[in-house]
Amino acid sequence: MNYEIDSILVTKEQIYDRVKVLGGQISDHYRGKSLVMVGILKGAVMFLSDLARELDRDLDVSFDFMSVSSYGNATESSGVVRILKDLDSDVRGKSVLIVEDIVDSGLTVSYLLHVLRQRAPESLSVCALLDKPERRRVEVPIDFRGFIIPDRFVVGYGIDAGGKWRHLPEICSVRTLSE
Ligand code: IMP
Ligand code: MG
Predict the structure, then answer these.
(1) pTM metric for this prediction
(2) How many domains does the chain have?
(3) Residue 46 domain flag
(4) Active site residue 160
(5) Are 160 and 154 in contact (CB under 8 A)?
(6) Distance 8 CA to ligand 2 centre (A)
(7) What are the b/e assignments for 46-59, b being 16+ CB within 10 Å?
(8) Quick check: is 57 in a domain?
């Protein structure tokens, strides 16, 4: 499918301000805990790296990453999720925070919660930059949320369409070009 950038939905400044607030909330919540931020590749990379820099310096925090693919077409998740890269570390007894770019149908995060819960972390929570509630198919708890957005396909700030546009510093909506 061919896409074209349509309009900016969330600006650089809005992202910066919100990430700062989230960093403060996460620092307060995890003070005295052993936090593992689990970034979901590749979409959450920019978000995780900016968020981490807004955390208190004295927080006990490490990073780990998972990569999952959902079977389906470019814009529709099928609900069947496959782990392409698993965690490097054992999260037993740790406070795990899943850091995700978008919660759309909710199927990916729901699957990740199911998988990670079995590894006996002390706590398991979700931080999502974007939330598209209109598209939800399964309820998932979002403990730390960046922005609620309408049902639009978006790119930028780590998020792609067919591998492109991750480098954009803001969140843009795209439209499909008819062939
Ligand atoms: P879910 O399983 O339907 O919640 O889908 C979550 C995943 O689908 C996200 O992590 C994204 O990788 C992808 N996704 C959902 N909406 C968009 C979008 O608007 N643009 C790009 N990727 C998206
Ligand atoms: Mg993703």
Answers:
(1) 0.95
(2) 1
(3) yes
(4) no
(5) no
(6) 20
(7) bbbebbbebbeeeb
(8) yes
- Look up the CATH number of the domain holding residue 57: 3.40.50.2020
Range of the domain at 120: 12-152
For CA atoms 128, 134, 140, 143, give the dihedral sign: positive
Q: Which two tokens stand for residue 105?
A: 């149908």
Q: What is the per-residue pLDDT for 141? A: 98
In this structure, is residue 5 part of a structural domain? no
- Which of these is catalytic: 88, 104, 143, 160? 104
pLDDT band at 176 (very low <50, low <70, confident <90, very high): confident
pLDDT at 70: 77
Q: Is residue 100 part of a domain?
A: yes
Q: What is the DSSP letter of 164?
A: B
Of ligand 1's listed atoms, the one at least distance from the Cα of 70 is: 2
Ligand nearest to the CA of 131: 1
Helices (H), 31-151: 45-52, 107-117
Cβ 54 vs Cβ 22: under 8 Å: yes
